[in-house]
């Protein structure tokens, strides 16, 4: 049964004439007659008494008319609400980021940009690999991506083209951390040894930070002795494993809050630390009505952060 059959029936009930009902519905009279017959076949009863002039409804037709009008009204109201919801979603800027940045940075940052700026978090992205973010931005699946950046993250290099634009929101660094032993001292310290390699909480190769750390360690003159015991995609998961004493791992310094410094300590000196940036990317040709205002506010945020850290 189709909704237009109900609409045809209601039009016929109002006009009591096939020709006038067909004109009202912008269809031919044979088409309307066929639809009414299909409706009657579907219901298994006669709805129209064709032996009267003007046409009249059978008792079953009168009962059916009441329900048909209710269904049509319900569907029209539902369609309007769905369209309004879609329009509301279309007004929002879609932001994709990692689970770590959603939990540690995004909410406060969006709040600082202003409550009147509609930004929705694309939570699908929490399970994306690094390259998925680039493809989503290229394909229009999101309006903005917020991610860590380092020159060793090769799949981000495509975003250096003129088709994209970025803002540096913050400077950060990746440093090795360890939990504490029973004496309250660092449980593990780099570089370890062949005889006693350090248990290592590492990142999945598809994550943002994996190539950064791997390439940095390869460039060091003094090589660490590490034994991979766990692999994660998100830095926040790596932090949890380190805090439980399972091994060492590299974390963005900004992810380790002041109140966590008593149970997460550096696992090495500055030679094991490397710089990291937090960047916001957009497609230059994005014509979203809120994009210009969002980008301007984000630029002012970047300037404020630079002044605070200088």
Describe the overall structure.
- The chain is α/β, with parallel strands linked by helices.
- It has helices spanning about 5-15, 20-25, 30-45, 60-90, 100-115, 130-140, 210-220, 235-245, 290-310, and strands spanning about 50, 55, 95, 120, 145-150, 165-180, 200-205, 225-230, 250, 265, 275-285.
- The strands form three sheets. Strands 3, 4, 5, 6, 9, 10 and 11 form a seven-stranded mixed beta sheet that branches. Strands 1-2 form a two-stranded antiparallel ribbon.
- Strand 7, helix 7 (about 210-220) and strand 8 form a beta-alpha-beta unit.
- It is elongated and about 100 Å long.
- The protein starts with a helix and ends with a helix.
- The relative contact order is 0.12.
Number of strands: 11
Number of helices: 9
State the fourth-level CATH superfamily of the largest domain.
Periplasmic binding protein-like II
Low-confidence stretches: 306-310
The largest β sheet comes out as: 7 strands, mixed
- Integer tally of domains: 3
* CATH fold type of the largest domain: D-Maltodextrin-Binding Protein, domain 2
Please compute the radius of gyration using only Cα atoms. Answer: 32 Å
Integer average pLDDT: 89
Estimated share of beta-strand residues = 15-25%
Which series of helices and strands comes N to C? Answer: HHHEEHEHEHEEEHEHEEEH
Would you identify the CATH architecture of the largest domain? 3-Layer(aba) Sandwich
Helical content (DSSP H or I, runs of 4+): 40-55%
Name of the level-1 CATH class of the largest domain: Alpha Beta
Overall outline: elongated
What structural class should be given to the helix and strand makeup?
alpha/beta
């Amino acid at each position: 049964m189709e909704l237009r059959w109900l609409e045809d029936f209601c039009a016929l009930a109002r006009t009591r004439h096939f020709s006038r009902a067909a004109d009202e519905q912008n269809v031919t009279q044979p088409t309307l007659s066929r639809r009414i017959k299909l409706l009657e076949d579907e219901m298994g009863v006669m709805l129209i008494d064709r032996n009267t002039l003007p046409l009249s409804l059978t008792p079953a037709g009168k009962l059916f008319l009441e329900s048909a009008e209710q269904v049509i009204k319900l569907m029209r109201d539902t369609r309007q609400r769905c369209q309004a919801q879609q329009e509301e979603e279309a007004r929002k800027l879609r932001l994709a980021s990692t689970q770590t940045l959603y939990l540690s940075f995004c909410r406060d940052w969006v709040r600082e940009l202003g409550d009147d700026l509609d930004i929705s978090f694309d939570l699908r992205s929490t399970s994306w690999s690094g390259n998925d973010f680039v493809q989503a931005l290229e394909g229009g699946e999101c309006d903005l991506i917020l991610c860590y950046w380092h020159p060793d993250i090769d799949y981000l290099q495509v975003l250096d083209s003129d088709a994209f634009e970025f803002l540096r929101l913050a400077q950060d660094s990746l440093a090795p951390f360890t939990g504490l032993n029973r004496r309250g001292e660092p449980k593990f310290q780099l570089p370890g040894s062949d005889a006693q390699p350090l248990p290592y909480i590492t990142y999945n190769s598809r994550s943002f930070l994996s190539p950064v750390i791997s390439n940095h360690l390869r460039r060091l003159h003094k090589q660490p002795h590490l034994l991979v015991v766990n692999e994660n995609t998100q830095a926040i998961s790596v932090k949890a494993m380190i805090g439980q004493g399972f091994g060492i791992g590299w974390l963005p310094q900004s992810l380790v809050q002041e109140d966590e410094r008593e149970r997460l300590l550096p696992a090495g000196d500055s030679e094991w630390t490397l710089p990291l940036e937090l960047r916001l990317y957009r497609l230059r040709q994005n014509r979203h009505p809120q994009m210009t205002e969002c980008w301007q506010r984000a630029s002012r945020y970047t300037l404020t952060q630079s002044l605070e850290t200088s």
